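Morning F.,

Quick status update on the modeling queue. The single chain you submitted on Monday has been processed. Sequence for confirmation:
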Amino acid sequence: MKRTVLYVSAAIAATALLSGCVSSDRETSPSGDTSSDSQACPFEVDESVTTDARIAFQDIPNGDLLVKDTGILEACLPNATISWNRFASGGDVVQAFGSGSVDLGLLGSSPATKALSAPLNIGMQVIWIHDVIGAAESLVVRDPAITSVEQLAGKTIATPFASTAHYSLLAALDRAGITDQVTLVNLAPDATVAAWQSGEIDGTWIWEPTLSQLTDGHVLLTSADTAAEGVPTFDLAGATRDFVESNPEFMETWTRAQDWAVEQLLTDPQEASVALAVQLGITPDEATQQLEGLEFLRASDQASPEYLGGAMATNLQSTAEFLLSQGEITEVSAPETYSNGVYVDAVNAVAEQ
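Structure tokens below.
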């Protein structure tokens, strides 16, 4: 596989630079309001928690954005200080974990695996499954004559490196036997749109809401397709081990807030889409459509052996084995690193309520 940093126009390069930076979009304190339409806590308020929590979020249509928009976490933890910081990709979140600049946040299963593996070996744990990725993350190409992955030989394909999209793309190229015949370009979502519009890339494996902006292309493969081939991917929440161990009460309330958001997505997606639309800068109808490409799991499901209660550790290890074969990590960690890299106490507590 050929790796490159695409030489793009100054405007595109500037977009890529800005989208890779961290910005604090909302910071709350015990007396702060978190949104224009903050909602009362839907369960028991915990006034004992005084934690400072720095949360990394991404513009992905799932429960995390719903928690952010409604201010549920702030309402349920009125004496905590919570800051929300936007990141372009899970790879950026991993870097922030490594530098100690965030405590918890959204990242895909592939970057979570890289964080737990050499050479990074970051002390973090998976704490929640935001969604099982399906058609909301896909490979889209410009040329209508391209109808198979094999036809991508000689093409330039963009994806945010160290993301679940990158992982799915590598798996698809590997199955097609053309890994060394495709030029891969590391671009953040905003920069991907600019490069697509300028014709400087032939395709991209990217997620919503960016995916829906590439209207003059067609989807060649989805993450649901790669999952069917035995390569499932997830949008996860991770947290540093130090933060988890020091803040069990915060972790349980955070998990209850996320479980509340999942319930809204499953039972009233139309209403939830209104809040997501505000966060994503799209229409509620567009948000509703994007939700269809993701599967959301209640805490009771996540606590089961199929997910955080067992299989997630196996998934992380198998992902590490593939990433090692692709040169994305230098060593697969011991099995206990991945099993200990999943924190189940909070999700078990919420599932039992």
